[in-house]
Amino acid sequence: MTFTTALKEEISKIELSPIEARCELFAFIQYGGKIGKDINIILENASVARKLYKDIKLVYDYSPTLIVRIQKRFRVKQIYIISIKENPKKVKEDISTSNFNAESREEKIAFLQGAFLAVGNISNPQTSGYHLEYICRKEKDANYIRKLLIEFNLNAKIVVRGYKHVVYLKASENISDLLRLFKATNALFFFEDIRIYRDHKNMVNRLNNCEISNQTRSIETGLKQLENIKYLKEHDLVTLLDDKMKIVIEAREKYPESSLTELADIITTEYNYKIGKSGVNHHFIKINNMVNSHKMNNEERV
Known about the structure:
By secondary structure, the protein is an alpha+beta fold. It is built from eleven helices and eight strands. α2 packs across α3 (46-60).
C-alpha cells in the first residue's frame, strides 16, 4: 500500500458533519467526477468509494448506483463506479452555485480533504523527498485550492504539467500541518517519525562532514608549520627565536597532527607555558613571515 493510499483511507474514515460532508462531496465531484447527463465517479480505493457513497446519502438522501468491475489491464484490480442518476440536476445546480464558496474553517478543511481524495498525491517520505500535490484539470480549480492552502499559512505553489495544473507543497512543515488539519493522526505520526529521523541523520552527516573538514584543515596546517620548522633548522634560524617560540616548535614536532587548540592545551600542561589557541597561531604566523622573508632575501641575492 502506498503512502497516498494509506492517507486517503484514513481520511475516508473520519466522521464529518452534514455541512462538512457537503463540502467534501462538492470538492470530490468537481475535481474527480464526470458530469454529463448523470454524475459518474470512478475510483480504485474501496474505502474512499464507501466514504463518497455515505456522503451522497447524508447530503441528498439519494441511493447512488454502485458498480464494481475487475480491470485486468497491467494488473488485476477492482474499479468502483458511483453514479448519481436520481435527480442529478439538483446536484449539478448545487455544485455550480455552491462551489468555491466554503466559508468556515471546517468547511475549507473538508473541501481540501475532498479534493485530495479525488486528485491528491503524497510521496512516501521514506523513499523520496517531501511532496504533496493536487492535480487539477482547470486553472481556476488549482487557484482555488492554492488560495485555501495559503489561508492556512501553507506555502502552496502551482506548476503546469502538460494539460494539468498542479498545486504542490514541498516544505515538510507545510505537509505536516496539512495532515494535522485533516486529523490524519496515523499518517501524521508516520510522517513526523520519518522527518525526525531524516533531520537527525542529516544533522549527524553535517557534523561528521564538518569534523572531517576541520581535521583535514588541522592536518594541512600542521604540515605547513612543520615545513616552516624544517626550513628554519636547515638554515640555522632557530637560534634567532625566543624561548617561547622554541617551545611551540618543539610541541608541534612532537604532536604533528594536533589542532591549534589541542596544541595550546599540551603546551600549557607539559611545558608550563600558559597559552591559548590564538597565541599558538600568532607564533606560527611570525615563523611563517620569518621564513617568507628569508626566502625573498635569498632570491634577491641570486
